[in-house]
Amino acid sequence: MILNRRGFLSLTAVAGGTLVVGCGSSAQQHTGSALDADALARVLPAHVPVEFAKPDLPGVNGSAPGYLTFPDRLVAAVRDKPLNGGEVTAMTPAFWPVPPGLGENSYYDVVNERLGGVVKFDLVQGSDYGAKLAAMMAARQVPEMTVMPTFTVPPRFSEGVGEVFRDLTDFLAGDKVKDYPLLANIPTDAWNACVYGGRLYGVPFPDKPFPEALFHRSDLFDQLGVEPPRSADEFAALCKAVNDPARNRWAVGDVFRSVVRVFGNPGDWSRDASGKVVNVIETEAYTEAVKFTRALYAAGYVHPDVVAGNTTRLKELFAGGQMLIYQDGLGAWREALAQQRPTNPGFGMEAMPLFAHDGGKPTYPVSPPTAMVTLIRKDVPDDRVRELLRVANFAAAPIGTEEHFVLRYGTEGEHSARNASGAPDLTELGRKEITLTYGFLAAPPDALVETQYPDYVRSLHGWLADAYEHQVKPPTFGLRIEEPAEHSKLPKQFEDRTNDILRGRTPVEQVGKLAEDWRKAGGDELRAFYDKALSDAGR
Questions:
Q1: Looking only at Cα atoms, what is the longest distance across the chain?
Q2: Whole-angstrom Cα distance, residue 255 to residue 301?
Q3: Entry's NCBIfam families (predicted)?
Q4: Which of 8, 31, 36, 474 supports an S-S bond with 537, CB 3.0-4.6 Å?
């Protein structure tokens, strides 16, 4: 499928691994490898769940629990200060304006007091993060703690990781993680993305295994008297019913990846009924999704910005009611409510229930449930590694703990205040000073804790319960697969080819050639690689 920072999906990126390259010459050729489940199990930490606040909505089918009310009483989960004084250097991404720095930020003072030392952050804008991380790795000049989003893995990372970052296997594998009980609370699947070359190199920031959803403006749907669809035909009919360019309203934005799922995407790589390894571009699901989405474009249901290839204003167009359906990461839901509800209390945004093209049982191929990995510099001595892991342990504190509260809401009465229902919200000072900095160093298991939006918690809880029921784990899930670097251009090449068909620049009849040309461009070699990797892993 098409590479996307929210879902990290591509024709050649797989569940459990990213294109990996080392720090050598770009002319080198690499065969790649796969680490099977047994080998992973030997380096992964034990999972020891803890709970400090009982959820109002327990998880279903393995989904995240939900909290409709914020706990009144908080527990100190970390008794001793993690640091023994001094300063820690850390680099994290910033997807928002950079807050005031040390000496000018009382939130930093509060958290650093709890930590027993000072964390000095280098905050780098998200769009520049991958390039800066790659340059710092090449120069072997990284801070003590480096946060690496899984969509910014630098070129040749797998080959160079051990030259720059500390092997944490002997500190965290198996029962050793029990020295850090809040890290032991992180589910096993989230740790898979921290393993390179058969060794554990990082601490994960867990995420949902569902990279995105189809969202709709539920308030405008109510006004227009329409409901979410239950089949592809109903989706097309819905688009026709709500599309009204004369009123500056279009039905959809970018929805192609979601449409592939509607038509039964089995995952980026799967085995067909005969046992042959196939890529999603070779499947009927992909072909039918291209045809269906092309029809939406041809009918004029897609917003002109998207038709022109401009996807920078999707959130704005959706919030303004100019586009009623679009796909985005699940985090966009909470973000939109925070931005829109203060001035538009009736703003309604919902994730569409999963549906299949024929009205039957839907499926959702899941992705690795890890958003980021925190790495520790190689030259850090053992005692210092333990200190830094204690900082990560602090950052992983779940709801119901004092640590969780201070990281997200600072000091109550100064950086935040509770509303009539007891839900904390940031004050003007909190909004100025608090961003997700310390919280990027690690995170607790996924939970829905946005108690200021109980309707959102209920709705997302229900959506996730349904999604978990219909999840499909591709054969690559849980394997640490490293692809041959020589095939790295395939995703962009066939993203462009697909977009040409969707927008009518290439006849839709050419959809059948996509798979054929992909095979000739290196797909068959990549298939052979995956066939061996899966076979070696017993899949």
A1: 67
A2: 11
A3: TAT_signal_seq
A4: 36
